[in-house]
Each structure stands twice: as C-alpha cells, then as structure tokens.
Amino acid sequence: MPVTLSIKNVPDDIARKLRLRAASHQRTLQEELLDMVKQAVKDDALVTLDGIMAAAQRKKPALDEAADRVRSAQDAEQKRVAQRFEDLLGSPDRPTRGTGPGRSGGGGDVR
Questions:
Q1: Any idea what DSSP says for residue 103?
Q2: How many Cβ atoms are within 10 Å of 32's Cβ, its own excluded?
Q3: Are 18 and 32 in contact (CB under 8 A)?
Q4: Are 22 and 29 in contact (CB under 8 A)?
C-alpha cells in the first residue's frame, strides 16, 4: 500500500532548485521527488550487523598495499638516518676529524 511522505520546512532556494530540476526532466515536482527517492534506495541491500562485520573483516588490497609502502618508506628512512649517524659519529676504529698527529686538538704540545 503506498505511503504519503511529507517534508516540512524546505528552504525556498532548495524548493526552487527542485522545481527547476523537475522542469528540466519534464516532470512534476511530485514525479521528480519520487524518482529521486527511488534512485536513492535503488539496489540498496538491507544493512545488518553481520553484513557490517563481514565488510570490516574483508581484505582491502589497496589499504594493505598503501600500508606496505608506508612501512617500506619508514624502514628506508630509518636506515638512512642510522647510516648518517654512523657517518657523523665515525666508527670506533677511525679517528674523528680534527685529531691525530700534527693537528690542534690532537693532544700535542704546541709552542
């Protein structure tokens, strides 16, 4: 059995745009609104908690790929920073810059 729906307090600019839309489709406002409602619910499945949970647990390849790219970029950045620290600090086997024989700061006595 058909049901009558009513929308109250529609702003004037919205009502005007709906009338223009109906006219452009050569329909009455009633026909246009009914078509819009039909399109809005077309092919919509009933939403259930089970359906929502199943959708949440499905694999999302695009999201997984993006997460892998982020992890790879973070790993590469971490390696780059670690290498930079090693370059700046030097290894324990190498003398640091500014020390050694004949250089100031090398512990020699300068007269």
A1: S
A2: 19
A3: yes
A4: yes
For 39, phi then psi, to 5°, come to: -65, -35
Q: Quote the CA–CA distance of 59 and 49 in Å, as a whole number.
A: 18
* Phi and psi torsions of 90, nearest 5°: 75, 160
Six-digit token pair at 88?
A: 């700046």
Structure tokens of 85?
A: 């620290």
Q: What type of residue is 73?
A: A
35 touches 22 (CB < 8 A): no
- For residue range 40-97, list pLDDT tens digits in order: 888 777 778 888 888 888 777 777 788 888 999 999 999 999 999 888 887 666 555 5
Instruction: Round to whole Å and give the CA distance between 41 and 49.
Output: 19
29: left (phi over 0), alpha (psi -120 to 50) or beta: alpha
Q: Can you list the positions of beta strands (E) in 6-65? A: none
Query: How far, in whole angstroms, is CA 90 from its chain's centroid?
Result: 40
